[in-house]
Amino acid sequence: MNDKKLSLPSKIWDDVFRYLAFGSGLVVILLIVASLITLIIQSWPAIKHYGLSFIWSTDWDPLAEKYGALPFIVGTLLTSFLALIIATPFALAGAIFLGELAPKKIAEPISFIMELLAGIPSVIYGLWALFFLVPIIRAFQMKIGAPPYGLGIFTASLVLAIMILPYALSVARDVIKLCPNDLKEAAYGLGATRWETIRGVILPYAKSGIVAGIVLALGRALGETMAVTMVIGNSSTLPSSIWDLGNTMASVIANEFNEAQGLHLAVLVEIGLLLFIITVIVNLIARIFIIKTRV
Amino acid sequence: MSIENPIFRTEDLCAYYGDFMAIKHVTMSIPEKKVTAFMGPSGCGKTTILRCLNRLHELTPGAWYSGKIFLRDQDILEMDPILVRRKVGMVFQKPNPFPTMTIYDNVLAGYKLLGIRLKKEEADRICEEALRKAALWDEVKDILHRRGTFLSGGQQQRLCIARALAVNPEVLLMDEPTSALDPKATLQIENLIVDLKNTVTIIIVTHNMPQAGRVSDYSAFFYLGELVEFGPTAEMFTNPKDPRTEEYLTGKFS
């Protein structure tokens, strides 16, 4: 043995890498805290002026400096959950098809196209909805006797549903694919059909992952701005039905931010702060659910 | 060698994966209410032929067969596979209880998955009976409503046996059921197999020759997809007819 030739790799690089990784993790936390602080500072005049009643007040009159966030909170929650209700069955069915039923030759190209769908800029969805969805919905509204705006809460929900579908679907497909083959064979071995195996074994196994995908999609729906702003109709009154015009928290900020000054600006920032908080709460609830149902 | 009133009979059975022929022209009869061991070196097709017997083979993409397999007098390749699998249960190499279900629900999975509704008393009775048959009842009777994945490997495998027995199959196929278990758990399963053969026909694939000697009445030796030799285990172990069987039994290859 030649001891002189034996040189250990330097420990320094190990340390450098560790601190780098630690630092990167820290930056993420700092960014969240920093944006929270910025939002609070910028919205402070509004928080001080209107207090908590800002959350449940429905007034929105910038000229009289009367502001309430409820129409937008309702708009955001209504469009997002409606989008989720519309998108979930399709996401689930598509995920079962792509993850379990379809042969590879079919599943792979479809998955590829679906991932392209997720990459389309939001403004393009908005344009498409304006030219394609709005006339259809207007015709439908005339048929059922609703005010024929074409625009509105329902249209925005539909666009959102289409936009979040690829997210929910691809996560659900991945977890369905993860279901171990020996569990499926155990079910088939007991005489279960394909559908019974999917319902009784694969879906329960994938449940927490599927919920995670839906929450990811919900997070995106809550904050989606451009496409929603283009089709929701920009009305600041509390919507009384899904056919009404409305505004979400994101779309009112996008619509009014350019002309806002002083208190009005602080109010918009406060809406941003509320949106931030709502998103965090939704994610926390989902996280708890996922942990509770984990296999 | 002829078997009176066989429960399974194959005629010129060939099984394929795409172009690859894994089972070559196997004609054999399997006796009822006995333990039959399928032996042979890795890749000899013993697991493949086992999976043919309850039509799990065809679930592998590209897999197909030719020939005939009779369960009593019915050709199972022409039956509804669901029906075949109700009559021919399976225990797998790796214990695979359903992780989302309780022990109780695992035992009754053969009913629950198929949407068969049972009265509470009947479900309880089937569950207890199956667990007793699988020699697991005493260990789990107080934790029936906990998840099956908390059990030890050997207990999980006996749970899987109970699950298969709960639907009253005529045949139980076991694919190397002890290869993932420790010696103590292996011994328990072996004793169980011997106890069970009065109620159900058992076909067991095993790598372990002493095990085949301990539990089986008949043995089949496969080599490169062919059935080399079939006969009473005692006879085959003491006086193999084919030189390849002898070489395998004496450990010249494995």
UniProtKB/TrEMBL annotation, chain B:
CDD domains: ABC_PstB_phosphate_transporter (cd03260). GO terms for cellular component: membrane. InterPro entries: AAA+_ATPase, ABC_transporter-like_ATP-bd, ABC_transporter-like_CS, P-loop_NTPase, PstB-like. The keyword Transport applies. Keywords: ATP-binding, Nucleotide-binding, Phosphate transport, Transport. One of its GO terms (biological process) is phosphate ion transmembrane transport. Residues 8-249 form the ABC transporter domain. Gene3D superfamilies: P-loop containing nucleotide triphosphate hydrolases. It comes from the Bacteria. Pfam families: ABC_tran (PF00005). The keyword Manganese does not apply. One of its GO terms (molecular function) is ATP hydrolysis activity. NCBIfam families: 3a0107s01c2. PANTHER family: ABC TRANSPORTER I FAMILY MEMBER 17. This is Phosphate ABC transporter ATP-binding protein.
